[in-house]
Amino acid sequence: MKMEVVFWIAVLGIAYSYLIYPALCFFFAKLFGSEQPIPVLADEQLPKVSVVIAAYNEEHCIAERIENLIAQDYPDDKLHIYIGSDGSSDATNQILEAIHHPFVNISLFQPNRGKASTLNDLLQQVSTDIVVFSDANTEFEPDAIRQLVSGFKDKNVGAVCGELDLYNSGSNANKDNLYWRYEQFIKFQESKLDALLGANGAIYAIRTELYVPISANTIVDDFQIVMNIAKQGCRVIYHRGARAREEIAPSTLEEAKRRVRIGAGNYQAFSNLLWLLNPNQGWRCFTYFSHKVLRWFTPHLMLIALISNILIAQQTFYAGFLLLQIIIYALGIWGNRKIDEGENTPWFITFIAFFLRLNTALMQGFVLFSRRNLTGTWQRTSRS
């Protein structure tokens, strides 16, 4: 009887986070949430703003990234750009040294210390009220910064998260597009409840005075930076009008490596942000536990469900569940093999394969975190 309870807790925990919670979040956002329109500010209303980018070995895109920022629909004298090269060993530094622009500030740091340290140093140079964070391989829409900054018209807003579109080089499509749209949908509902969790690291902005320096070994910097702002009692909003696009990893191997490291960073963030589990946080406690904590521990729940199912499989009813689990895992393994070979698979196989790959990376990230030797130094993802 006890093992049956364990089995059902694990199964329901997974089902709740991925299926029930999004429906509840949508329902609660309809009943209790609010969505205020964000009017775009005129030139004379726009404040001075800084964009900070920490880069490492980005010779293939850093020049285009700076051109993209300079071309923003934002008054030239109100836009300052800070690029920090963190011990780059390719041609990134040479490219940056050749850039001469009155509002582009270049810092060449040595040795390589990691993104968190670079961001901390760049923020010390920023004197504007608003700072925008982005990545070297991101491309902003022409009005992205104007849209982000407009979100701060409400004095209670401390951070604004933009919307990121992912694409595959050459095909202009994101192979994980369904899951990405699913995540964007949840974020939008959470924003209505004033319970948004973190930001898209490629496009978000904060009030500079609210920035809290992060530890040098921080991996998911965007999540911790924004949650530090929420802790100060400020609103964090999701603004769909502020858009950017970014290429995903060109291979499943590169993407897996990225997910493992992010997985380790998630558990690191969990250990640093236990205050989010305080019921006094209201809706944010609800969204954090449902959307983040249960997701991060889904691979553990999957393992518990499998082991407990094996132990009670002598009952015909649970033998059927065990057979179902075996079939699902077999389909996932087969699907991932076909995807790695560049073959198309039916949508449901693709979904199972993605779910299995995602949670395998999370478990590997947990093992990496458990070793207690995480560093903030770069683990760069190759791009085409």
UniProtKB/TrEMBL annotation:
Transmembrane segments: 6-29, 293-311, 317-335, 347-369
Record's keyword terms, sorted: Glycosyltransferase, Membrane, Transferase, Transmembrane, Transmembrane helix
The UniProt record lists the keyword Nucleus: no
GO molecular function: glycosyltransferase activity
A Pfam cross-reference name: Glyco_tranf_2_3
Cross-referenced SUPFAM superfamilies: Nucleotide-diphospho-sugar transferases (SSF53448)
Family statement drawn from the similarity comment of this UniProt entry: Belongs to the glycosyltransferase 2 family.
Record-given protein name: Glycosyltransferase family 2 protein
Organism: Thalassotalea litorea
